[in-house]
């Protein structure tokens, strides 16, 4: 399998180089040259497999330059750190299915990909005899999952930018209580979009990227998205009837839902993907009316989705534009100049044939948590609640809905307590954070400050 860039200006590369490149060197995002298609019998057989076997089958279609035995070992090791025998169990509550993606070390869906990516980096760096400086942006969950994924690994420094005081307190502690010498947390006085913009700008500074061997842990890295494809198949295989379903995905950077889109293109029977957002609803507006115009980020009770500029939309647009990189370049030039992208009526129709959407406000999110808790005794985190609200409100045709549960509720204790009127018990790994020393560098949202900091700390 070879990989290309959505912007069309890199020579085809293999999987291992794609993982190491992160953001494509032409500023685009990396995609496979073609998407493998599985027939219905294969989908049915594979999706019933235990998680690690399924992950191996799917990932090996794309990671064709890693010897199969090595890949198997990497996958087995990555999911051994999950505390549930099913890795990503599916439960049914109140008529909807909940796909629990929070059984990894940091209690969010990011662990599914970042446990694997950490092991992949270690494997590739050893093979190449290289060192790496990881540079990533987080609105709260990617950061701790990435740190947990690379902690204790040789030849890796990690620099994670988060928006100062805009994550939940527990999310911040999950990152800043890690005092290992190679772990660097930077609290940026700005938004997640500012953090992501700094990271992308530094990745696009090719001499700097090369000199410091920058590695990407955000979903700009193809391996992130690929690992997330697996659980769509896994969930489908656990449904009582193997029918066309709707996946409801709480969405911020469009990585998770893009993985669902890939699963569908690979042959998984997905009727539609329901793109659920909080008040930061640029992606909902895009699906509902083709209005993709940038607004101001607002702070919500689902802070990990407080995002305007979703990285992975570019990957979807590449397909929407019939795999035409010139149209992708034009769209992003338009976005830079005018703050919006204009879509044709035909393109809008195409988007609506693939996605449903719902934008969920704070009151509805908290009410969904409260109602669900009262009716089922099950506690949703605020991000999951956004998707569950979307499924309960928008899936009106009798289809089965699978809601992706992207984080453990205890990561967002304040919001959950406001909704249900009682504190959520802390799992041991979160309770253990109380009182620990923290280390974090607070900085203005200035790429030169981040650059200088990385230069000083990288070794
Ligand atoms: C808990 C949680 N839910 C949902 C999302 C949205 O996922 P994505 O960015 O892949 O759209 C994020 C982060 O982005 C998250 O941390
Ligand atoms: N919600 C994310 C934002 C970054 O998204 P990513 O999937 O591109 O890493 C976070 O928790 O940091």
In the CATH hierarchy, what is the architecture of the domain at 90-107 and 223-420 at level 2?
3-Layer(aba) Sandwich
* Whole-number mean pLDDT: 97
The total of helices stands at 20
Major sheet summary line: 6 strands, mixed
Distance between the termini: 34 Å
Number of strands: 15
Q: Which compounds are bound in this model?
A: pyridoxal-5'-phosphate, ligand LJ64HWYM
Helix/strand-derived category reads: alpha/beta
CATH class of the domain at 90-107 and 223-420: Alpha Beta
Question: How much strand?
Answer: 15-25%
Helix content: 40-55%
Report strand order across the widest sheet. 3-4-14-9-10-13
- Rg over CA atoms: 20 Å
CATH fold category name of the domain at 90-107 and 223-420: Rossmann fold
Descriptive labels:
459 residues, alpha/beta, 5-stranded parallel β-sheet, 20 helices, binds ligand LJ64HWYM, pyridoxal phosphate binding
Question: Could you characterize what this model shows?
Answer:
The longest helix has 19 residues, at 110-128. The protein has a domain at 90-107 and 223-420: Rossmann fold. It starts with a strand and ends with a helix. The protein has 459 residues and is of the alpha/beta class. 46% of the residues lie in helices and 15% in strands. A six-stranded mixed β-sheet has the order 3-4-14-9-10-13, sandwiched between helices. A five-stranded parallel β-sheet has the order 8-5-6-7-15, with helices on both faces. Residues 108, 140-141, 219, 250-257, 304-305, 383, 406-407 line the site of pyridoxal-5'-phosphate.
